[in-house]
Amino acid sequence: MTIKIMNRSKHALPNYETVASAGMDLRADLTEPVVLKPLQRAIVKTGLFIELPVGFEAQVRPRSGLAAKKGVTVLNAPGTIDADYRGEIGVILVNLSDTDFVVEDGERIAQLVIAKHERAGWETVESLSETIRGEGGFGSTGVR
């Protein structure tokens, strides 16, 4: 699949780091560093604009290393970029650690996964089929 992209950043296009990678790293496109204090959030721009085919979305997801090592993650993860959006890709970062985190220009801040999706229609009914699980949710299937 080929996706149209405008790169207004000073960084290379996102790419897959390995042959089996599902996501491509997104980099911060900044004129000056952004300081995220503990529990602070900010939208960090990437300088990238994309045109997805209808039936696809781009999912903005956290980078596991950034989350595990620094306590910084993506809010509303995964964030969805719809096929009809033409604005700049921004990443909502939040600092969940107890120390300041500085986002530097060019830093890998999130990953982008391209995914196919379906459009659903609704059928109004009076009852649903029975299952073993039934209405059990939020941990009802056990802890193991």
TrEMBL record:
GO BP field: dUMP biosynthetic process; dUTP catabolic process
Segments forming a coiled coil: none
Positions of substrate binding: 63-65, 76, 80-82
Domain (dUTPase-like): residue spans on this chain: 12-142
Pathway(s) annotated for this protein in UniProt: Pyrimidine metabolism; dUMP biosynthesis; dUMP from dCTP (dUTP route): step 2/2
One example GO MF annotation: dUTP diphosphatase activity
Keywords, ordered alphabetically: Hydrolase, Magnesium, Metal-binding, Nucleotide metabolism
Keyword Lipid metabolism part of the UniProt annotation: no
InterPro entries for this protein: dUTPase, dUTPase-like, dUTPase-like_sf, dUTPase_trimeric
Keyword Metal-binding attributed: yes
EC number(s) stated in the UniProt entry for this protein: 3.6.1.23
Chemical reaction(s) catalysed: dUTP + H2O = dUMP + diphosphate + H(+)
Required cofactor names: Mg(2+)
Domain of life: Bacteria
Enzyme class, spelled out: hydrolase
Pfam families, per the entry: dUTPase
Family of this protein: Belongs to the dUTPase family.
Function: This enzyme is involved in nucleotide metabolism: it produces dUMP, the immediate precursor of thymidine nucleotides and it decreases the intracellular concentration of dUTP so that uracil cannot be incorporated into DNA.
Protein name: Deoxyuridine 5'-triphosphate nucleotidohydrolase
